[in-house]
């Protein structure tokens, strides 16, 4: 394997809440600043996850406006920045479709064909970013359009997106047979007290569903097959398994909040953390805030994905919403974990520094416009990008100097615990993977 590559990406979500649309590229000002690409190239990045989003390009059926992506992708080509093109990023498609539309997949595939024909030189693609997360927020929790709140809708939305990926990659590869699928997904682990063990097992199976579907693993005998078959999805699962679309790279997105802990002792936690599954009431909190022996998430995630799939991996989002020194420590921990995993034989190809321009309103899960902003590699709060200390850390990584990383991360300190600590994994469900 050649050396670990350094990638980047700017938060580019276009999501819908009712009739309101939130476009991160406009909120950050990137939509009107092509010069940002020169700043990205100046960091020494090899590739950038970049949006040619369906909602922004085809606002009316059959009427595509290429002016914005034409200019941006041409500039990236001049700068030597390899684009990893995304078509849907936490969205539900243009206003005339949605995740539960039976025609969502063929419609996205048609758009993918147009994009690939327009840019036949692009080799790296993410047709749908984080299908599982998007299905949860849009069809299980009701946060985003089409605001469904039931499990049948959730699984239907996920299968629709997976079919969209498969059909889109078929169209893209008919134009460029070398095209690679980089399939991103948020990846964490759920621990629990014993009364919540069954829910934790289910969530640990569910977190793999996107990749299991694309690799043709969700077949009879899979822990989730009967559940989906009861929702009337058996025939669609069979069709996917007969014509899978394994990713060329697994895109690992992992955050401090990705790992969860379920506790039936709800009186230990504030009301907003409490919920249940209809059988057991439990609090759902960040594992880092309650597990006394919380393990390193990056190494565990990389090892778990490699053990299960034996497919190349890229960390496609490394971001921490915190102070610059803590952001640098999080990036350092990720880079060290990826480098260590490579030495142990895990095929890790890259680490992508996410939210190059920061992000807006993720503290409300993009459910409202409140103006809340957290900086990334650049701070755009004053209207123009200003390099933060994290930018200097990224440049050091790009030149092989490595990160300083002297400060300890808050997630590594005893003060991270907000709730009565649970000590000893033997009392909880969970394990290495």
Explained architecture:
Helix content is 35%, strand content 19%. It is of the alpha/beta class. The strands form 5 sheets. The protein has an 8-stranded parallel barrel, surrounded by 6 helices. Helix 6 runs antiparallel to helix 7 and helix 12 runs parallel beside helix 13. It is globular, with a radius of gyration of 21 Å. The two termini are 25 Å apart. 48% of the residues are buried. The model has no long low-confidence stretch (mean pLDDT 95).
Topology summary:
Blueprint (H helix, E strand, L loop, with lengths): L4 E5 L4 E4 L2 E4 H4 L8 H7 L4 E5 L2 H4 L9 H13 L2 E8 L14 H15 L5 E6 L1 H10 L10 H25 L4 E7 L3 E4 L3 H10 L2 H6 L10 H6 L3 H9 L6 E5 L6 E4 L10 E3 L4 E6 L10 H13 L3 E6 L5 H20 L4 E6 L5 E2 L12 E2 L3 E2 L6 E2 L1 H10 L29 E2 L4
Parallel strand pairs: 1-4, 1-14, 4-5, 5-6, 6-7, 7-9, 8-10, 9-13, 13-14
Antiparallel strand pairs: 2-3, 8-19, 10-12, 11-12, 15-16, 17-18
Helix pairs in contact: 5-7, 6-7, 12-13
Report Rg.
Answer: 21 Å
- Give the CA-based shape: globular
How many β-strand stretches?
A: 19
Give the helix/strand class: alpha/beta
Provide the low-confidence segments as ranges: none
Largest sheet entry = 8 strands, parallel, barrel
Into which percentage range does the β-strand content fall?
Answer: 15-25%
Question: Could you give the order of strands across the largest sheet?
Answer: 1-4-5-6-7-9-13-14
Question: What would the average pLDDT be, to the nearest integer?
Answer: 95
- Structure annotation, total helices: 14
Distance between the termini: 25 Å
Query: Helix proportion of residues, in percent?
Result: 25-40%
